[in-house]
Amino acid sequence: MFFLFPLLMGALMLIPGWIYFIVLLYFCWITVPNIFYGFRSQNDLMFTAMMPVSKKDMVKARISVIVILELLHIVIAMLYGLITTRLYTNIDYYFFKPSPGFWGLCFVMLAIFNLTLIPMYYKTAYKFGSALIVSITSAMLFAVAAQWLGIQNTKMSEIFNVTVGDHMALHSSILIAGIAIFIAFTWIAYRMAFKRFLKVEIQ
Amino acid sequence: MLALDIRNLNKKYPNFELRDVSFQLEKGYIMGFIGANGAGKTTTIKSMLNLIQADSGEVRILGKKMAEHETELKQEIGFAFGGIDFYTRSKIKTLTDVIKKFYKNWNDDTYSTYLRRFKLDENKKIAELSAGMKVKYNLAIALSHGAKVLILDEPTSGLDPVARDDLLDIFQSLVLDGEVSILFSTHITSDLEKCADFITFVDNGKIVNSSDKEHFRETYRLLNGKESDLHQVKDKLISYKVNSFGFTGLIHAGDFDPALDIRATIPSLEEIMIFFAKKEETYV
């Protein structure tokens, strides 16, 4: 089900001129709480702790699930974005248009989400309420700030929404920087989570 | 060879403390781990398995340090924790398919043999199993991955007498060839009278005694006497009860002078447990 979700949510990219940050935020709003709730209600922590797996692998496995789903969401949304830009050629974008630079910003948004969610969650590896509120708020604040700048700053609006083709180098570098930040933040989140998990008492 | 070697395990909580817990279990035997509710049985077991971090102490399982060989040792340990359920809406078959991938020595034939022996239906959901069946399912899993040490936390609690007796028979048959060792915690002392070779008794976070069953009981004497005789032994008693017929008290065999005119018998495990619990009450 969670693997089908990117296909469904990605289709929201077909709404013309929408706030496309929301497409990825659905992952944070719906998928993550459901996964974590599943872990808790099924006693997954105790179950995994009984298996012959190291604590490092236990943390790695859960983070991998999140990262794989994030990548699926973003890559599928990108593909839908390509369709959108070809489908609606005469739209004046008020919010960000799907562009490499925009996807770079999305990677940064998810990076912030991971960096707040994962270490906070691993204080207990069980309670996720406050970790979820803080991480969703941080990711949304970033999205709102970026989008606000994209509307207020005429030059930024031009580069992101009108003259994408003329600024391909800039767009590519934003995308690469976004991916680099995503990798770096997620790695830091994993290291912090592992350190905290070693102190967790599995009850 | 020692299947379990626990030395000086300490763990401090704000309102409970595990103090210098040490005991050893020889390979091929059954050890009952008894104590009242809240005495520290589960905390000890969880510390042994690295589920909670002990403040100090050393745990060796099959001669290897748990702290250093946790993943490797978990291949050789089977668990059953009473009252904890995993993925209860999944079918046995589904859960087993996930579990077996983690074990190097998984044997499908052994698994089907135990399923038949325990009359477990693979298509049933975990939630549909009775408490006894859940323990049997855990045992089937443990034995199919070749577990040499079974650590069972209250496996018989909540079972009816028939299911308990059945399970105890299974425990005994498992240790017959001397390969498997079992540590099981319980507060039902009659289980231990039936099948344990060794007893480890934990009370208020401390090990009171750990020895073979007969020796364990012979360490103590249960005294029955007239209330007027109580003053002769009162100071040496672990604890005592007074009623209209006189007093009943527990004493260390070494502290009892057989010359006294007080009837002394060897206590049952239950009596030992009760009088130790009473001692705690006296101090509160």
TrEMBL record, chain B:
**Could you give a GO molecular-function term held by this entry?**
ATP binding
Return the CDD domains for the record: ABC_DR_subfamily_A (cd03230)
The protein's name in its UniProt record: ABC transporter ATP-binding protein
Identify the PROSITE patterns for this entry.
ABC_TRANSPORTER_1 (PS00211), ABC_TRANSPORTER_2 (PS50893)
**What are the ABC transporter domain coordinates in residue numbering?**
1-229
What keywords is this UniProt entry annotated with?
ATP-binding, Nucleotide-binding, Transport
Q: What SUPFAM superfamilies does this protein map onto?
A: P-loop containing nucleoside triphosphate hydrolases
The domain of life is Bacteria
